[in-house]
Design goal:
68% helix, mainly alpha, 7 helices, 130 residues, two-stranded antiparallel sheet
């Protein structure tokens, strides 16, 4: 499962990067409060599709190289650590401008109550795609 999980982490990082790009464009015209649901969904996706897989595979160290797909042909060469910085770190950075949103995001990342509340609201077909 190791190589498959590494590939899934890379693909998930690529999807999160694409969604983050859209979120950053929205935040130019809307408040963070208007986009908090999107931020929570991104945090949840990172927890389930990226962080859980990395934690389940102890050989995936911070220095492990990874190719993050950015489209049909393009990819971005990173390490696990730098990939986490541009996905999870970016979400934390965006959320840090609002205390309540930031705390909820941290709770999602640590699988606290907010994580499970969100999980109960997300349609099962979306969960299967992660």
């Amino acid at each position: 499962m190791g190589a498959i999980d590494l590939n899934r982490v890379a693909v998930s990082m690529g999807k999160v990067l694409k969604m983050l790009e859209g979120l950053e464009n929205q935040l130019k015209h809307q408040s963070i409060e208007e986009n908090k649901e999107t931020i929570f969904i991104l945090a949840y996706a990172c927890r389930v599709a990226i962080l859980d897989r990395i934690e389940a595979n102890p050989w995936m160290k911070g220095s492990t190289p990874i190719k993050i797909p950015l489209g049909l042909i393009r990819c971005r060469k990173e390490t696990i650590e730098s990939g986490l910085q541009i996905t999870v770190g970016k979400i934390e950075d965006i959320a840090s401008s609002d205390y309540e949103i930031y705390n909820a995001v941290e709770d999602i990342f640590s699988k606290g109550p907010t994580f499970y509340q969100l999980q109960a609201m997300i349609p099962p077909e979306y969960l299967q795609k992660l």
